[in-house]
Structure formats: structure tokens, C-alpha cells
Amino acid sequence: MQSRLAPLFLAFLLLAAGCSRQQADRAGAPAVDDARLCAAASEPQSWLTHGGTYAEAHYSALERIDTDNVAQLGLAWSFDLETERGVQATPLVADGVLYVTAPWSVVYALDAATGALRWHFDPEVPRSHARLLCCGVSNRGVALYDGKVYVGTLDGRLVALDAATGQPVWETLTVDPGWPYSITGAPRAVEGKIIIGNAGADFGVRGYVSAYDARTGELVWRTYTVPGNPADGFETPAMERAARTWTGEWWRTGGGGTVWDAMAYDPELRLLYVGTGNGSPYPRWLRSPDGGDNLYLASILALRPDTGEQVWHYQTTPAETWDYTATQSIILADLELDGRVRRVLMQAPKNGFFYLIDRETGEFLSAAPFVEVNWASGFDASGRPIETDVDYRHEAKLVKPSPLGGHSWEPMSYSPRTGLVYLPALEMGSLVKMDPEWRYERERYNSALDVSVFTRFGADAGAGGGDEGQLIAWDPRRQRAAWRVSHVTGGSGGTLATAGDLVFQASADGRFVAYRATDGHRLWESPLGTGSGGGPVSYLVGDEQYVAVAAGWGSSFAMSASEAARRAGVRGGGRVLAYRLGGTAPLPAPKHPPLGPVPAPSFRVEASEEQRLQGTTLFHLHCSTCHGALAVGGGSGIPDLRYASEATHAAFADIVLGGLRIAAGMPSFADRLDAEQTRWIQAWILQRAADSAARE
């Protein structure tokens, strides 16, 4: 009797944990279901979800490639993603097929052993949507489930594709088309539902996360992260509680709190964890003039995956006011702390502190700075940060980390072998000042920061003296760095930790590097022919272990990172590269020669010094999110305007106002700029080019 009951009891446990087995019903498609996702750690030959497993550790248990033989790694194959824009995707691998996304939400299915194209899907996002994106046209990946591939598109759709053919099965619009939402993050498959968030807080939207039926595309639940207009009532008790922490008429400017990246899931606790984003606008004094913590901005939320009900929250940055999102990687692990094993959640968000949270209760356990931090001096007993002088209403303040964050979207990884988290970090400060004349405008960049600091303080204004990229091996138990590797410049990609005691990372200056996980010693590197990239993955085909990365350098706000990429000859060129022991495939030649020194411009535009100063402000309001701070581009398909040709300058007004290059993703700005303002911007760009040429 006991032997007959055991399988039934196991099936009951799987069902209770949200891990019931459901076979795929499409021939040739991977049978990825709840049980397989829950057991992903026992299937290291695959990479079934964004972080490898629901714990999101970006860790591979494969060990055939190790510290002794990693020097024998060679390129097995590469695939051209047919883009010059920045690539941030983490590939998925199941049953011999690798699935990856390119900019503009394009999906590719490749043979995991050869890189041969199986199929590709272009959702045909309107290029005019680029105006509604804070940070480029990247996409961070797909979800696999029920014989389908799920992708979120830049214009807010969730599309289900047949995994065998790439043909659309269903699609649904996940956002209100009247608001400037977008999707860059990877969806997750949890308990028969596809979980997707969105972006847009910088433009002034209200954040939420949604769950859709994986088979039909029907909305199952939606959980808002900040309250709406009280006159309309509150969707949940959590929203009613949150509203008590806001003042004024915050809902008129959206509020922010978008869920644009991090998620994790604990099938035993049946809790879904999501990170929320920045406030809209940034300065707390504008969106909530009489104070308050502004829940649930910059928070980690634990939700019931079947209903979206909030179980607990922890706010990393109360009254968030520096673009310090908590949307960065969330990793789940069991750690021994003070003689007791705790189920913890780990996060290193933009604000520069590494957090340990009890993932069952939301209890704050500890936090420590992993980069230089000056906005807070520590934490009180409740886990609330102790703020320093934060008031930048009337004068510019140097804040560390910068709004780019001590850590941003790049995935971090955790090795249970070493007990260390491998964290891509950015050591950088920034001058910030509130714009006293800011007024909310829908579909405009609504940070409410005074961009004229670039005019008044010059080239170091945005960087606070420059930036340094680091790869940090962080010991979460001791809350301190075990080792650090300086990259000289920021902008390097995510990390992969392996059971071979290796850490892999693509660098901003065009190298794929393997470090020894215990001490950071560099054991191997190979040129990428491009730079940076998303999270590397590892998988098996037959007996052969592969390490693959989707790479492609994109535009960056960190000026020295962009300059380093330029000087290293990195010029975008998105591609997937897979490596194996003894690989001998040749690295594809770059599509474009290095840019070289900035040439002195031959084109002339007459403008006064005051008009050029106005051009600086207008450029940073309307152009810098793509073309880079102070017009220092990242060497990607978004041009570094200091290199613009005489022909480009001759057509400048037609490009900016007439939509001449909309097919390339450069929309018209005729509704935002007039001919005179466009001329001022052009005059300032020419001056920047002349100044750069004189220094080189």
C-alpha cells in the first residue's frame, strides 16, 4: 500500500508547489512545463529560464570546462543578429535549440551545436516607438513553456510563438496604448502563467506586473505597484496602504514603479518576487510634496503567483529620488547565517547596497555598500536606510552611485561552490539638480532633472569625475568583497558562474573573459568583435559543453565607457558566439572599421554662444538617451554624432524634423523642436566635435 501511495503523494506535492507536469502538445517543440522548470537544476545540460533556474542564480552545474582546461576554449560558431544596436539578451536552450532575442524584440531559434538558423520572428515594432524608450531598443530574452516561446515587444505586446516553427500562436497588448509604456525585460513562466512587466517610469506611467494564461493569452491578474487616483478607488488593500505614503496629486504624473526586469520564483513557498522601479518624476518634492515613502517604488514585492496578491514588501530606497530602481537581479539561495540556515533573497540594486532579505517573511537581514555610497550612511534596526543630505532642489549635489546605478540590468550570478555572488558593478557619481521649471508632458522624458548642469559644469558633470567598471566577487554572509577586478571602464555585461569554478563575462572593450571563481585570476579571454552583452549561458549537446553569449555594444550614458569602446575599435555588431573546448571557428570580420579619432568638422552653422548653450540643454532633453551624454556615442548603430559627415549635417533638419531616417529608428521630433532649436542643437554638436578633435 505504501509503495502505491508514494507516487500519488509525490504528485500531490508537485501540484501544491505549482510544479505539475503538463506535456507540450506540439510536435518538435520542447516539452517545457512546470515540473521541468521546477527541476531545472537537475537538468544542467539545458538553460530553461532566464536565470537558469527559478532561483535566478545564473549558475551552471556543468564542469567539463574547468580551471585546468579553460585555456583550450575556442569559438565553435557565431551567428549574426543583423543589428548594430545594443544586445542585452540571455539565451535559453532546450532540446538542442538556442532561443535568443535581438534589438526591436526580434526572436531567433538556432541549432545549439552549429548556430544554424531554425527560424526567426520579427514583431515589426514601429520605429517611431523609439521616442518612448529611455535606454535603447534592447530586449533581454524570452520564456519557454507549453511548446511556445514568449516574447515581450517594445511596443507593449506579449507574443506567443510556436517553438517549433516561430509562427505566432497568440498575442495580446499588455499596456494602455494611451501611455508611453514599453517592454525590454524577459517574461517568466510560472504555474501556467506568463508573467510580464513593463518600462516607462522615466516618461511618466504607473507601474504594474501582469500574468497571462500561457495557453490562451487571457489576462489572469494584474498587480499595480503604486496607487492611482484615490477618487477611482483602490484595486487592493496594498494599494490603499500605499496611498497613505503619497501626497499631492501624484497620479497625474504616473508615479512610476515599473517592473521592467528582475523576477524570481520559489515553488516551495509559492512566492513570486518582482523588483520595482524609480519614481516619476525623480525628485520626491515634485511628485509627493508633503513627504512620504511613496510605496512601492524601489521595492521588492513578494506576490502569490495564482492571484497576484502582495504578501510582503521591502523598500530598498524609501521616497526614491535618484532613479535608484530595485529592478536588478534577484537571486534566491539558502545560506547559513549565525548558525541558522535562512532562505534568503539577494539583490544588489542601483542604490549601491547589497541586500539579504528573508524571502519567506520579507525581514531585513543585512545590507552593505558594494560601491562608494554617499546618499545613505547605513541602516537602522528596522532595515531603513539612514539618509544623508539629499536635497538637490536648489543646488546641484554629487550623488554616489549615479542614476546609472552601482549595478544595473546586467545579470549577476551565484556559485554554491564558492558561496560568492559575481556582480558587474559601476563606480561612478553624478551631479543632480531639480529642474524648477519642469512641467509634466505625456510622452516626454519626465525625470525633472536640470540637464543644464552639463552646460555649467562641463564634460565631467554627468560622470562626477569618471567611471570605473568592476567585477566584484561578493561574500553575502560576511557582506564584503572577496575580490575585485577593475575594468577601467564600465559597461561590461552580465556574469555566469559554473561548477568548473569559472566566472564568464563579456567586457565593454570587446573581450569574452573567464576568471577563476575563487580569486578572480584571469585564465582565458577571446575577442568578441563587439562589446558587452547579456548573461552568458552554458549547455550540453551530446557530450560537448558549450558556453554562449549574446553580445553587442550599445549606446551608454557612461561617457568614459563609450570612449573606451571607441578606442578599442568596438562598433556594435550584435552576434551570438558559442565556445567549446578545441573550437576552431574563425571570428567573423567586423562589419565596420574602427571609428578612430574624432575628425575636425568641415560643416559650419552660425550660432551664438548662448544659442549653443541652449542647444546643450535641448540635446540632453531630447537626444542624449540614444546618442549619449555630451554626444559621446557608444560606437553602436546609434551614431556618435561627433563623427557626422558633411552630408548628414546638410540633411540635419530633414533627419530631426522630417523623419528622413525613421526606417533606421530615428523618428521625427517636429512636435518637440522647431527649426531654430534644431539649428542650436546642430551648432552645439559641431562645437563638441571640434573640441574633441582638438584634444585627440
Please render the helix and strand layout as text:
Blueprint: H1 2-16, H2 34-38, E1 59-60, E2 73-80, E3 92-94, E4 97-102, E5 106-111, E6 117-121, E7 143-145, E8 148-152, E9 157-162, E10 168-173, E11 188-190, E12 193-196, E13 208-213, E14 219-224, H3 237-243, E15 255-256, E16 263-266, E17 271-275, E18 279-280, H4 284-287, E19 299-303, E20 310-315, E21 330-337, E22 340-347, E23 353-358, E24 364-369, E25 376-379, E26 385-387, E27 397-399, E28 413-415, E29 420-428, E30 430-432, H5 453-457, E31 467-475, E32 480-486, E33 495-498, E34 502-506, E35 511-516, E36 522-527, E37 537-541, E38 544-551, H6 559-567, E39 575-581, H7 609-622, H8 624-627, H9 646-650, H10 652-656, H11 675-695
Parallel strand pairs: 1-33
Antiparallel strand pairs: 2-39, 3-4, 4-5, 5-6, 7-8, 8-9, 9-10, 11-12, 12-13, 13-14, 15-18, 16-17, 17-19, 19-20, 21-22, 22-23, 23-24, 25-26, 27-30, 28-29, 29-31, 31-32, 33-34, 34-35, 35-36, 37-38, 38-39
Helix pairs in contact: 7-11
